[in-house]
Automatic annotation (TrEMBL):
<feature type="transmembrane region" description="Helical">
    <location>
        <begin position="86"/>
        <end position="103"/>
    </location>
</feature>
<comment type="similarity">
    <text>Belongs to the sideroflexin family.</text>
</comment>
<keyword id="KW-0496">Mitochondrion</keyword>
<keyword id="KW-0813">Transport</keyword>
<feature type="transmembrane region" description="Helical">
    <location>
        <begin position="12"/>
        <end position="30"/>
    </location>
</feature>
<dbReference type="GO" id="GO:0005743">
    <property type="term" value="C:mitochondrial inner membrane"/>
</dbReference>
<keyword id="KW-0029">Amino-acid transport</keyword>
<dbReference type="Pfam" id="PF03820">
    <property type="entry name" value="SFXNs"/>
</dbReference>
<dbReference type="GO" id="GO:0015075">
    <property type="term" value="F:monoatomic ion transmembrane transporter activity"/>
</dbReference>
<feature type="transmembrane region" description="Helical">
    <location>
        <begin position="50"/>
        <end position="74"/>
    </location>
</feature>
<dbReference type="GO" id="GO:1990542">
    <property type="term" value="P:mitochondrial transmembrane transport"/>
</dbReference>
<dbReference type="InterPro" id="IPR004686">
    <property type="entry name" value="Mtc"/>
</dbReference>
<feature type="transmembrane region" description="Helical">
    <location>
        <begin position="137"/>
        <end position="157"/>
    </location>
</feature>
<keyword id="KW-1133">Transmembrane helix</keyword>
<keyword id="KW-0472">Membrane</keyword>
<dbReference type="GO" id="GO:0006865">
    <property type="term" value="P:amino acid transport"/>
</dbReference>
<keyword id="KW-0812">Transmembrane</keyword>
Length: 223
């Protein structure tokens, strides 16, 4: 995250964002829902292909603004502000969510287990799988989007108030701020949605509801 946030060349930005999204893709794959019925898909060729494609796509999208600016030599202060300060945060948030959705796509393609309040498995639901993946993708977008955006705001005030007068110190200060924001956002992101997700009876498939009278169901969201 820190290295990706300080790149100024498109090639370097692509490489480091590729490394970053590869890590997050692997993390999402390992920490997804482990429904036994879907285990055969956990290392399926299609899932690995989608993960690699999502990683390459996300790295390209992240590096595209820098490539555009460098290619056409757009050096105006407004363009530099947009490309280097405003765009990285929403782009990283969106691409992080996209990577999660692609890597864990078998969960909403094949479904995940849903349980009653006693822990008894009622069935395998695609709607629960979709809800679990979307919640995780949203939490990942908030985590990395905020981690890129908030340090830029804080650094703006640090420079404007001249709190740090030595320009050589700005680099370490920036790294410290990014690390602090990331450390603070990790528990926030993981606690946005409960690890044991809940889904209402009306949101489940009819074939699952026919075997029980329960009104509330639960599933493992993953992280």
């Amino acid at each position: 995250v820190i290295v990706s946030s300080v790149q100024r060349q498109a090639k370097h930005s692509f490489f480091w964002q590729f490394v970053f999204h590869t890590y997050t893709a692997a993390f999402s794959l390992i920490n997804g829902n482990r429904t036994p019925k879907a285990e055969q898909y956990s290392l399926h060729q299609k899932q690995l292909f989608l993960g690699l494609g999502a990683t390459l796509y996300s790295a390209c999208v992240g590096a595209l603004p820098l490539a555009f600016v460098n290619r056409y030599a757009l050096k105006s202060s407004l363009m530099q502000l947009i490309v280097r300060k405003l765009l990285p945060a929403p782009l990283l948030g969106l691409t992080s969510a996209f990577t999660v959705a692609m890597v864990r796509s078998p969960e909403f393609d094949n479904g995940i287990e849903v349980m009653d309040r006693n822990g008894k498995v009622i069935g395998v639901s695609k709607k629960a799988g979709e809800k679990a993946v979307m919640e995780t993708a949203l939490s990942r977008a908030v985590l990395f989007g905020t981690t890129f955006f908030l340090p830029e705001v804080l650094m703006y005030f640090v420079q404007r108030t001249r709190f740090v007068k030595n320009h050589r110190v700005l680099g370490p200060v920036r790294m410290f701020i990014v690390m602090s924001v990331l450390a603070g956002m990790l528990p926030v992101s993981f606690s946005m949605f409960s690890q044991c997700g809940e889904i209402k009876r009306a949101d489940l498939e009819p074939e699952i509801l026919s075997s029980t009278e329960e009104t509330e169901f639960f599933y493992n969201r993953g992280i």
